[in-house]
Amino acid sequence: MSSRERTRQQLDPAGTTGVRQFTIAVAIGAWVYAVVVTLLNFREINDPPLAILSVLLLSTAVAIVWIATSPLRAPLTRRDNLLIQGSALVAYFAGATSTIGENAFVRDDWGPVVLGILLLALGPYRPAQEIAATGIVGAIFVGFVTLVQVRWFVTDGPPLAFVVVAVTPLIAMCLGAVAYSIGVVNAIERWQRRARAANRGHLEEVRGSIARSVQQDRVTILGRDVLPFFGDVLAQDRLTDADRERAREISRSIRDLMVLEANRSWLESLVAQAGFESGADEPVVDDRDQLAGGMSLDQRTSIRALLVAVRQTPEFDPGTLRVRLVRDGDLRRAVLSAGFTGPDAVPRSAFSPYFALMRTVFDGFDVEFHHPSLRVRFWYD
Amino acid sequence: MSLGLPPHLSARATSSAFLRALHAIGLTCLAAAVVAAGVFQAKMPDEILWPAMIAVVPMGILLWLHGRTRSLFFALSFLFIGGACTYWYIVTFYSQTQPIMSSDAFSIDFPKLALMMVGGPGVGLLIRFAWCAVGFLFGEIAAGAALVQTGNPLQFDATTFLAFGAISVVLLLTWAGRRRVRRAQPLLHRAVRDEHLASERLSIEAKAAALMHDTVLSDLAAIASASDGRLNPQLRQQVEKDLETLIGREWLDDAPGLDPQATQDWNDSTLNAAISEVRVLGLEIEPTGDLGCVSRLSREASVALGLAVKQCLVNVLRHSGTLRAEVVAYGADDEVSVMVIDAGRGFSEGEAGSDRLGLRNSVRRRMESVGGTVQVWSTPGRGTSIVIRVPASARGSVTS
After folding, report:
1. How far apart are CA A46 and CA A40, in angstroms?
2. If pLDDT is split at 50, 70 and 90, which confidence band does B214 have?
3. Cβ contacts of A170 within 8 Å, gap of 6 or more
4. Do B215 and B221 form a contact (C-beta atoms < 8 A)?
C-alpha cells in the first residue's frame, strides 16, 4: 500500500463519502452555468464546432469528477485531478477560441468561474499544494487568454484590469480550496495524534486485566492435568515408566491445543466473537494458507467495521457470511460474501463509508452489491 | 488508523475549515479590489481613485482579525465598518468620469463579495450560512446607498447574487452530507478501539503460548526422556521454578515498575542470560559479532529476543545431534539481528517435529509480538540457521 497523501479523503475516507454529493452537485452546477452562459452569448460564437467541443470537454471533466470521487474508486489521484483540470482548461480555451474576435465582455466568460469551482470541489480530495499549483497554472493561462482578447472587448479599460477581473474568481476559489484542505487536514491530524495518545493510555490501563484473563485461561487448562502431575512428580521424587508415559500424554494434549490456537487467526476469532454462524459443511473463514495474519492493523480494523455493520443490518441473513483468502503470486486475495433477505433492498450507500475505508487501506478493492448478495474482493501484498 | 474525526469534532473542524476558506476568498477579493483601483489610478492619473484603495485596507485588517480571533466583536466590526468601506469604495469610483463606470474591467463586486465571506463566530454550517446572508445584505445596502448618493439608478447585481446562491448550496449540501455519515462514524471508531484491544490480547496470548512452551512443554519433554530412578536435581529445580512462575505471579505482565522501553546492556541482557543457561545444560555456545548492539533494544524486545534465542539453542541441544552452536549478533541502523547457527542434522519444512511448534510459538510469534521477524534455513544433513531481526533505536541514540 502506498503512503497516504495529506488529503481529507485519505485521512478520513469514511467521512469524505458524505462530501461527494456536494462535489458532484457543485461540478454539475458549474457545467450548467457554462452551458447557460454559452447559450446566452451564442451570438458571439463564430466557430460553433469549437463551442460544442468546449461543452463536451467540460462534460468530460464533470464525468471524471463523478467517477473519480466514488468511494469505490478512492482515492482520487493526482492523475485524476490533472485530467479534470486539464479537460476544463482545454474546454475554456476552446470556448474562448470559438468567440475570438466577437467576445464583447470579460465578465460573462464562464471559464474562470468554472475552473475555480472545480478546484473548490476537489478541496477535500487533493493536497493543498497541488490545488495551489493547479490554480496558479490555470490563472496564468486565463490571464494570458484574457490579455489576447482585450483588443476585441467593446468597453475601454486598462488590460491589467481586465486580467484582474478574469482571474480573481479562479484565484479566490483556489485559495478557498487550499485553506479548506489545510484546515481539515490539520484538524484530522491533530485529532489522530490525540486519539493515538488516548488509545495508548487506554491500552496501558487494560493490559493488566487482559493479561490476567489470558493467564486465568491458561491456569485453568494447566490445573486439569499439568499442575497435579508436576505436584506428584515433585512429591514422590522418583520417575517411573508410568510417569514418563503420562508426561508424553499430557504433552501431546497440550501441544494439540496450542497448535489449534496457533492456527486460529484473528479473523476466525472475530467472526466467532461477532456471532456469525458457519454452514453445515463450510466454515465462515477459509484461510488455508493463514494469510489473514499478514494484514495490518488498519486493514483488520476496516474488515472488523464492515463485518459489524453487516451483522447489524436487519436484512442480513445469518449463516451466509463467507470469507476466503488465497495466495496469488506475491499478492494475497480475499473474497467476502454475504446474503440479505427481505423485500426491501439494502442500499449500497449503507456500507459506503466502510467500502471507502477498505478501498484506502487495501492495495485493491472492488465490490458487487446487487440485492440480495454482497460480494467484496480485496487484495494486499 | 486512517479514520477521520468523530462526529462531535467533525462539525467543529468542518465549520472552522469553511471559515478559513471563506476568509481566503474574501481576502482575495479585497486584494483584487485594491489592485483594480491601483491599475485604474495608474492609467488615469487625473482621476482621484486612491481613496478607494485606502477604503479596502480596514476591511482586510478586520477580516484578518476576525479570522484570528473568531470573535463576535470583529465579525460585527467587519460588517459595519466593511459596509461603510464598501460604500466609500463604490462612491469613489462612481464620482469619477463615466468611462470607468461603463468599463467591463471595473467591478464593484469585490468588496461586496468580501462582506459576504464574513463567516462569523460560532460553530456550525448553518451559522456560517446565516452570517453569509447578513454579509450579503450589508453589501447590497452599502452598494444601494452609494448608487443613490451618486445619483445612479439601483441595479440588480447578478454576480453577487449567484455567488450567494452558490455558497448557500455548498454549505447546505455539506451539512446534509455530514448528517448521513454521522451514523457510520461511531461504529468505525468502536472498531478501531476493539481492534487495538484484540491485537493486544493476541500479543499477550502469543507471549502466554511461548511461555507455556518454554516451561510446561519443556519440562514434560525432560521428564519423558529422563532416566529411571531419582528425579534429577537440575530437573526438579527447573520444574519448581516453572511452577512458581506459572502459579505464583502474574507471569504475563511485564515486571511492574520497569519501563518496557528502557534498555539493557550486554551483561544484563536476557540474551546473555539465555546463553549462560543453555551452556549449563551442556551446549557449547560461541557468541560472536557486535554483541553490544543488544543495548539498543527496548527491555521488552530484549527479553523477547533472549527467550527466543534460548528456545533456538534448546532445540539445537535436543534435536540437532550436535553439542555446538554459534550465536552471531550484528546491528544495522534501525534493527538488531541475531543468527543462531548449528551444523547438526537439520530438518525440512514439511517435517512435523516438535521444533515446529517451538519455533512457531516460542520464537516466531514471540518475536512478531515485539515487531520482529524470523527466518529459518534448514536442510536435512546440513544444519540450521535461524535469523531473528528486531527493530532497535537508531545507532548513537542510546548509551549503554
Report:
1. 14
2. confident
3. A112, A113, A115, A116, A119, A135, A138, A139, A142
4. no
**Domain A266-380: what homologous superfamily?**
Histidine kinase-like ATPase, C-terminal domain (3.30.565.10)
* Last residue within a domain, chosen from B133, B148, B182: B182
Q: Are residues B178 and B196 in the same domain?
A: no
DSSP 3-state assignment of A347? coil
Q: What is the pLDDT of residues B352-390, one digit of tens each?
A: 455 467 777 778 878 887 888 888 888 888 889 999 999
Taking only the tens place, the pLDDT of each residue in B241-268 is: 888 877 766 665 554 444 555 566 777 7
Give domain status of residue B396, yes or no. no
B173 and B193, same domain (yes or no): no
One-letter amino acid at B104 equals D
- My answer on whether B101 and B245 are in the same domain is no
Least Cα distance to A334 among A376, A272, A277 occurs for: A376
Q: Tell whether B139 is covered by a domain.
A: yes
Subunit contact A259:B221, Cβ cutoff 8 A: no
Which residues of chain B does A258 touch, with a Cβ-Cβ cutoff of 8 Å?
209, 212-213, 217, 357, 361
Contact call for B191 and A301, based on CB within 8 A: yes
Q: Could you tell me which chain B residue has the CA closest to the CA of A12?
A: B4
Note whether A188 contacts B230, CB cutoff 8 Å: no
Partner-chain contact B220 A254, CB within 8 Å: yes
One-letter identity of residue A1: M
- Which pLDDT does position B262 carry in this prediction? 59
Per the CB < 8 Å rule, is B4 touching A188? yes
Number of domains in chain B: 2
What cell was used for B219?
Answer: 519440562
Are residues B206 and B324 located together in one domain of the fold?
Answer: yes
Q: Cβ–Cβ of B173/A25 closer than 8 Å?
A: yes
| Domain presence at residue B100 | yes
Partner residue opposite A11 with nearest CB, options B2, B24, B194: B2
Whether pLDDT at B341 is above 50? yes
Q: Which residues of B touch A214 (CB under 8 A)?
A: 201, 204-205, 208, 252
Q: Regarding predicted confidence, which is higher, B228 or B168? A: B168
CB A120 within 8 A of CB B2: no
Q: Is B120 left (phi over 0), alpha (psi -120 to 50) or beta?
A: left
Q: Is residue B91 part of a domain?
A: yes
Shared domain check, B209 and B174: no
Q: Which residue, among A118, A60, A49, A121, has the nearest Cα to A85 in the 3D structure?
A: A118
Q: What is the CATH number of the domain that holds B239?
A: 3.30.565.10
Q: What percent of chain B has pLDDT over 70?
A: 84
Nearest-Cα residue of chain B relative to residue A160: B39
What's the CA gap between B68 and B50, in Å, rounded? 28
Cα B324 from Cα B320, distance rounded (Å):
9
Question: Which residues of A fall within a CB distance of 8 Å from B198?
Answer: 266, 269-270, 300, 304
Q: Show the domain range for B328.
A: 188-391
Q: Please give the residue of chain A at the shortest CA–CA distance from B160.
A: A169
Averaged over A341-355, what is the pLDDT?
78
Measured distance CA(B310)–CA(B325) in Å, rounded: 12
Looking at the fold, whether B131 and B235 belong to one and the same domain comes out as no
Query: Taking CB atoms and an 8 Å limit, are A349 and B246 in contact across chains?
Result: no
Among the candidates B182, B214, B249, a domain finishes at B182
- Single-letter amino acid, residue B11: A
| Overall residue count recorded for chain B in this entry | 400
pTM of this prediction? Answer: 0.74
- The single-letter code of the amino acid at B133 is A
On the question of pLDDT at B174 being above 80, the answer is no
The lowest-confidence range among A160-164, A267-271, B354-358 is B354-358
> Which of A148-162, A279-293, B67-81, B300-314 has maximum average pLDDT?
B67-81
pLDDT (average), residues A180-204? 84
Considering the domain architecture, whether residues B163 and B237 belong to the same structural domain is answered as no
